[in-house]
Design goal:
Helix content: over 70%
Distance between the termini: 51 Å
Shape: elongated
Radius of gyration: 24 Å
Strand content: under 5%
């Protein structure tokens, strides 16, 4: 896979996105003007949520395009890991996510069509370009978090396969055991670096989305609470609850999946080596040194995924974002 700036696909993507960004800006301006004329605070807040929901369309050229080269290199490095796994074990590194991927794409299409058609039925004045902007933003909202989850799942499956093969190969004593330990050490290092590169190559894209989703969740919560206070019972109340739950779930699962990858490649992998060491002790000093070096390398090299060095992606990120919604608790916890 190669990346060319002036390729037909890139030129088509650039032209289409420019049109979508322009039409999205026009639609956001209309919604903003409408919100300024509404006296009801909860309804005007709901219109602001609509404006913010379309922000990911404008984020694509700012966050996705600058990272295209890094994403291509990241995908190409998977081939190197697969070749190394085949050289060490004689088997293919298969992380079969085909069925899950198909179901995820179908789910994303259904959500996108449902949301777009709902907006058309509720607001018949929307143009085709407005609906395309809504559809494009809906696809970003659903497909990108799914892509992150599937990537994390592939790392977990790959780490477990390497653990299984390592347990099988190192349980046999012989002259090749020392070489196998060295090969599995290099294979782990490549997988760990690839996991960290997930955040380095896509940090701006997913980090920007996380901030948008979190802000949307906060606004939806405030809108729902305000509607409860003034006792409004309409479709907006139901939509704010659903949107708040969806955006919160996206942030939570993205942070949780990243932490699962870090745990599997780090702590769980280290335990597997310690188990192998206990069941099949080193037969000479060289093997003992290699195994101890393997354990020390896992301890030295962090497996935590981060957004281009800005923030680690784990449950602590989710908790810290939640703390921002309750200033009193944040101050108390800080003190």
């Amino acid at each position: 896979m190669t990346f060319q700036l002036l390729s037909p696909a890139m030129i088509y993507s650039f032209a289409l996105l420019v049109l979508l960004c322009f039409r999205t800006y026009v639609m956001q301006a209309k919604v903003w003007q409408k919100a300024m004329k509404i006296d009801d605070f909860s309804l005007s807040l709901f219109e602001m949520i609509k404006v913010l929901f379309l922000v990911p369309v404008h984020l694509v050229p700012l966050t996705h395009w600058p990272e295209i080269r890094k994403k291509v290199r990241y995908l190409n490095r998977w081939k190197t890991i697969q070749e190394e796994f085949r050289n060490v074990t004689g088997k293919k590194l298969v992380t079969d996510l085909r069925c899950i991927s198909i179901l995820a794409v179908i789910f994303a299409i259904v959500i996108c069509v449902f949301f777009t058609s709902s907006n058309f039925l509720i607001k018949s004045y929307l143009s085709i370009w407005d609906l395309l902007s809504i559809m494009y933003c809906s696809m970003i909202t659903t497909l990108l978090p799914i892509t992150w989850s599937l990537s994390c799942r592939s790392f977990i499956l790959a780490a477990r396969l390497i653990e299984q093969e390592m347990s099988l190969h190192l349980s046999w004593f012989g002259p090749q055991r020392l070489r196998k330990i060295q090969q599995f050490k290099m294979l782990w290092f490549m997988l760990n670096k690839q996991a960290r590169d997930l955040g380095e190559s896509m940090g701006l894209t997913f980090g920007g989305l996380i901030l948008v989703f979190f802000t949307l969740q906060v606004l939806c919560c405030y809108a729902f609470l305000f509607q409860l206070i003034i006792e409004i019972d309409d479709v907006h109340e139901i939509l704010t609850v659903i949107c708040s739950f969806v955006f919160g779930a996206i942030v939570y699962f993205q942070c949780t999946k990243s932490e699962e990858v870090s745990r599997e490649i780090g702590m769980n992998f280290k335990r597997s080596i310690e188990m192998i060491k206990a069941l099949s002790p080193p037969t000479n000093e060289d093997e003992s040194i290699e195994i101890e070096g393997f354990l020390q390398m896992i301890g030295r090299h962090s497996s935590v995924i981060n957004y281009c060095g800005f923030s680690d992606v784990n449950r602590r990120l989710y908790i810290s974002l939640k703390m921002q919604t309750v200033p009193g608790k944040r101050k108390a916890l800080t003190n």
